[in-house]
Amino acid sequence: MTDVRERATRPEDLARLFVELGNAGDAEGLAELYEPDAVLAFPPGSETVGREAIRTVFERMLADRPRFQLEEALPTVRNGDLALTSTVPADNTGGRVQVARRQPDGTWLRVLDRPEIR
User: Fold this and answer.
1) Do residues 59 and 27 lie in contact, with contact meaning Cβ atoms separated by under 8 Å?
2) Helix, strand or coil, per DSSP, at residue 14
3) Measured torsion, CA atoms of residues 49, 51, 57, 58, in degrees rounded to the nearest 10
4) What is the reported pTM?
5) How confident is the model at residue 1 (pLDDT cuts 50, 70, 90)?
6) How many CA atoms lie within 13 A of 35 on its CB side?
7) Are 33 and 8 in contact (CB under 8 A)?
């Protein structure tokens, strides 16, 4: 049986889905929010490239059972099939920024993600 997860129909949906999937401990679901060749700037000071590597990072992170909260979203900037999303971080890490791309089916996935800016 295949899990059917909600897909982001707007770039702004990605942050909410991240919080929901992270709090559910779903590393695979988190990785599915990213394009297959996406780049995640995490852990801090490094880059994780590709959905499988991103899934592995999330598995390690979720092992500590962190709790995520939805943060205040800044206005999305769009240019065609690209969108820049960002939030004001509740943990004072300086900012969170993502680039998402509209997929052929109309849903959105993250291409670049910098979860911490200092």
Assistant:
1) yes
2) helix
3) 150
4) 0.92
5) very low
6) 18
7) yes
